[in-house]
From TrEMBL:
Disordered: annotated segments: 207-229
Transmembrane spans: none
Gene3D superfamilies to which the protein is assigned, alphabetical: Laminin
Range of residues in the leader sequence: none
SUPFAM superfamilies: EGF/Laminin
Annotated keywords: Calcium, Coiled coil, Disulfide bond, EGF-like domain, Repeat, Signal
InterPro entries tied to this protein: Dev_Signal_Modulators, EGF, EGF-like_Ca-bd_dom, EGF-type_Asp/Asn_hydroxyl_site, EGF_Ca-bd_CS, EMI_domain, NOTCH1_EGF-like
GO molecular function: calcium ion binding
PROSITE patterns found in the cross-reference section: ASX_HYDROXYL, EGF_1, EGF_2, EGF_3, EGF_CA, EMI
Domain EGF-like: 99-131, 133-173
Annotated source species: Strongylocentrotus purpuratus
Identification of the protein by name: Epidermal growth factor-like protein 7
Biased composition (Low complexity): 207-219
Span of domain EMI: 13-100
Amino acid sequence: MGTDGRRFLRGTWLHVCREQQSNQIQQNVLQVESYCQPTFKHYFARCGAPNGEYRLCSRYTTMYHMAYRRRYVPPSPVVERYQCCPGWRLAHKYAKGCTEAICTQECQNGGRCLRPNACACPAGWTGQYCEIDINECEGTTHGCQQRCENTDGSYECKCQVGFTLAEDGKTCTVCLTCTPEFDFLLARVNLLERDVAQLRQNQSAHVAAHQAPAARQPQNIYAPPPPNDQYIAQMHRVESLSEQISMLEERLADCSCRRRNKGLR
């Protein structure tokens, strides 16, 4: 009892309860008590005489002062003691009141025991012992523009394909380079540009092969032969590839406009 601090508890302190126990003491108990002890004080006062003269008269007055005395009294059948109310305990040995709550189970996820068997939970958690995760995505207060994914004790905002998450972590912006269609069209354009470059190189080599050397005499210069079927086919392929590149560039521009309009809705 001396080590847990209960001997110092007072009934006026917080969460302190009174406990009555049967007194095991059978002998009379010596007590020191205070009382008002009367004393008589003698003094003189002026008083009147029959002949009309004044004279001094003797008087007495009663005065009281605090005194102490010892006496033996029978023991009380009931002894009152004070202890912490159920669910509370002393924070330390000399605490003035039982201010520390007791939770039979430990508070989880950073919770704090606030009242007996009741935890104060941090944001994102609830339950008696903070064991239940709050799904913020079920409500409308998360603020995510497109998608909301619940996590333990929190949530994350996500974006659909073709969008990227902004710096505020909630809104989404258009991102053409993030779409599979953009990657496919870009690969096609690169392939066609390589084919066109190769065909133009072949065309230049074909023309150079049929040109007359500069050192020859004018009379030996002959007009180049008309293009053959292979050369004409290559020229048609170059024109076709150029048209495909133009169409792909138009599709990319149209895709960009549609993505931008969808993001503004």
